[in-house]
Design brief:
Layout (H helix, E strand, L loop, with lengths): L2 H9 L1 H8 L6 H23 L1 H9 L4 H50 L2 H6 L2 H43 L1 H48 L1 H6 L3 H53 L5 H42 L10 E5 L6 E5 L16 E4 L4 E11 L2 E11 L4 E6 L5 H8 L7 E6 L2 E2 L5 H6 L1 E4 L8 E2 H6 L7 H10 L3 H6 L7 E2 L8 H14 L4 E5 L7 H15 L3 E5 L11 E6 L2 E6 L1 H7 L2 H6 L7
Parallel strand pairs: 6-13, 6-14, 9-12, 12-13
Antiparallel strand pairs: 1-2, 2-3, 4-5, 4-7, 7-8, 10-11, 14-15
Length: 615
């Protein structure tokens, strides 16, 4: 890596440019804060310059009137400088918070737009680390380091100008010395920048591990893996400590180096300046002012050295944030849209007439209009989560409107994958999937998913009331529709027995709700959405027989008139299915209803007779 590339890698100018672009949301705060900081700096430099007439009035002319006049000017100038600095830092602090607010909003919106494939390969803890650790580091840097950096640049520039007016020869000595300081800073920052990036990465790794362990505490304790979990945490913690220590080492060492060299510079200027004073080239006041400027001009360099560690850490965090935001969003587009006839309230799949620019969804003129029935067909579908490991190998099946299709097979046979393809969580590699005769990949995803509902084996509940959790299936559902959905799911009875009924507060970690009750709430959530196509993914596999009966009754009511795909672990739940597909190794090896498959005496027969078990 050459010198130019190394410097770019350290500062990452594209990341800084992108970060600063967020200031355009609050231009007034940025310009006003910047103006106040610049004004306060100029006034501070001017106030230091007034030290010369103050000293000369006492030491040279012995004029008390001139002394008090100059002193009064200094008081006024430094008072204005203090007020300007206060408002400058206040406005820039507000700018920082508004910038982070906007950044968080965009991050959240983008994460919600990401495809399922991104979450398959990324730990939740890493994403949370960007929202918390990286954003907090960035906020602190923008609020503190940015105004300090601006102040330092302006203070350094204006001070050097004033020093040239006082004695240019001494100023050249100061500049030569400062070049040495900047060279040392550059060497230190190149080293520490690498470690700060490593630290941010290691923190994300350990956050991901912590999130994983906290969500799997029962498993850890069940298998007595506490010691192994501790050892792995300690390993990751050591990595964070090593990266942080290396970064801090270079950060801490910069301050004493800068401080001690500043004293050397101060002594050198005092020595040379004394000769100028003794020879009558400079007055005592001018030398005093120049000495003050020497101390002042060194302060910005030291301040930048102090803030550099935070800046490098923030840049590393910003890199991770923008890396997250640069992940490609899920493509939701599709030429085929969902349209509801305003007169009959019937739903249709419509293909917009591209030849007529005025035609939009909602118009009565379409190139194609197909009634929504829920007819789902797979034709020779091939799919793999990666190219080297195919999951589905030539799957062909159909579900007519209102039919119940059961998918049975060993773990990894491809049952859940089929339902994920109906949702278009993933795109097929080959073959064709159609709904009501229309290619699935041409249907706009949001419209497609508005007609689907899923009840999963693992139910997620949100923090809020039971009513809000059910209404999550359709946010505009009325209270009456929510309660009707709960009755349909056989959940109304236990809900009304709770202290606050439908207004009872719950969360995903609520231990008062059994797995069966959680599943009934999930069924109610699916019911309130009034789906055309329903997917039930082993919804009764982890409950007792009595609860299974309640859930089965709720699901039977929910499935009435809807095209339903059922993934079943317990074969008793699929006996009344219109068609049962037995999958093995990504292929359908048997198909038919319960009676047909029992007569075939194949794998389904052996599973029912207990001669084999689902692996």
């Amino acid at each position: 890596m050459n010198e130019k590339t190394s410097r770019r890698a350290m500062l990452n100018l594209p990341v800084l440019k992108r970060l600063f672009s967020y200031f355009h949301y609050n231009k007034k705060l940025f310009v006003g804060g910047l103006a106040m900081v610049i004004a306060s700096t100029f006034l501070g430099v001017l106030g230091n310059g007034l030290l010369a007439p103050v000293v000369d009035a006492v030491a040279v002319s012995h004029d008390l009137h001139a002394f008090f006049f100059a002193l009064g000017q200094m008081v006024i100038v430094f008072t204005l400088a203090t007020i300007s600095e206060y408002y400058g830092f206040l406005w820039l602090a507000e700018l920082s918070q508004r910038t982070i607010y906007q950044l968080r909003r965009e991050m959240n919106a983008h994460v919600l737009s990401l495809p399922v494939t991104y979450f398959d390969r990324t730990a939740n803890g890493k994403i949370m680390s960007s929202f918390t650790n990286d954003v907090n580091t960035l906020a602190q840097t923008i609020q503190q380091a940015l105004p300090q950096f601006l102040l330092s640049v302006v203070q350094f520039t204006s001070t050097i100008v004033m020093m040239f007016f006082l004695r240019w020869q001494l100023t050249l000595i100061v500049l030569a010395f400062l070049m040495v300081l900047l060279l040392i800073m550059r060497i230190i920052s190149q080293k520490s920048g690498k470690y700060y990036r490593s630290r941010q990465k290691q923190i994300a790794e350990i956050n991901g591990y912590i999130e994983e362990m906290l969500s799997a505490q029962q498993v850890v304790q069940l298998f007595n893996r506490q010691d192994a979990a501790k050892a792995e945490f300690n390993r990751r913690s050591d990595a964070v400590q090593d990266a942080s220590t290396n970064a801090a080492t270079f950060g801490v060492i910069s301050f004493p180096i800068m401080g001690n060299l500043a004293y050397v510079l101060y002594a050198l200027v005092a020595l040379v300046g004394s000769f100028y004073t003794m020879n009558g080239v400079m007055t005592i006041g001018a030398l005093t002012a120049f000495m003050q400027y020497t101390r002042t001009v060194n302060r910005p360099v030291t301040m930048v050295a102090q803030q550099l560690n935070g800046v490098l850490s923030a840049i590393a965090g910003a890199e991770r944030i923008f890396q997250l935001m640069d992940e490609p969003a899920e493509n939701m587009d599709g030429a085929i849209r969902l349209w509801t006839d305003p007169e009959t309230q019937k739903q249709y799949w419509v293909r917009r007439n591209t030849a007529d620019e005025a035609t939009t969804v909602g118009s009565a003129i379409f190139e194609q209009k197909v009634p929504v029935h829920g007819d789902v067909r797979f034709t020779d579908v091939h799919f793999g989560y990666d190219a080297d490991h195919p999951v589905l190998k030539g799957i062909s099946l159909y579900a007519k409107p209102g039919q119940k299709i059961a998918l049975v097979g060993s773990t990894g046979a491809g049952k859940t994958t089929i339902t994920n393809l109906i949702n278009r969580f993933y795109e097929i590699d080959d073959g064709e999937i159609t709904i009501d005769g229309l290619p699935l990949q041409e249907i706009q995803k949001e419209d497609l998913r508005s007609l689907l509902s899923m009840v999963l084996q693992e139910t997620h509940l949100f923090s809020g009331t039971i009513r809000e959790n059910i209404r999550f299936g359709r946010l505009d559902a009325t209270d009456e529709e929510v309660e009707y959905a709960a009755k349909l799911a056989n959940a109304d009875g236990f809900i009304r027995r709770l202290k606050d009924g439908y207004d009872t507060l719950i969360s995903d970690t609520d231990e008062e709700l059994s797995q069966g009750k959680r599943q009934l709430l999930a069924i109610a959530r699916a019911a309130v959405a009034d789906p055309v196509i329903l997917i039930l993914d082993e919804a009764t596999s982890s409950v007792d027989t009595h609860t299974e009966k309640l859930i089965a009754e709720g699901m039977d009511q929910l499935m009435q008139g809807r095209t339903t795909f059922v993934i079943a672990h317990r074969l008793s739940t699929v006996r009344n299915a219109d068609a049962i597909m037995v999958l093995e190794d990504g292929r359908i090896v048997e198909r038919g209803d319960h009676e047909d498959l029992m007569r075939q005496k194949g794998r389904y027969y052996r599973l029912n007779k207990g001669l084999e078990e689902l692996a």
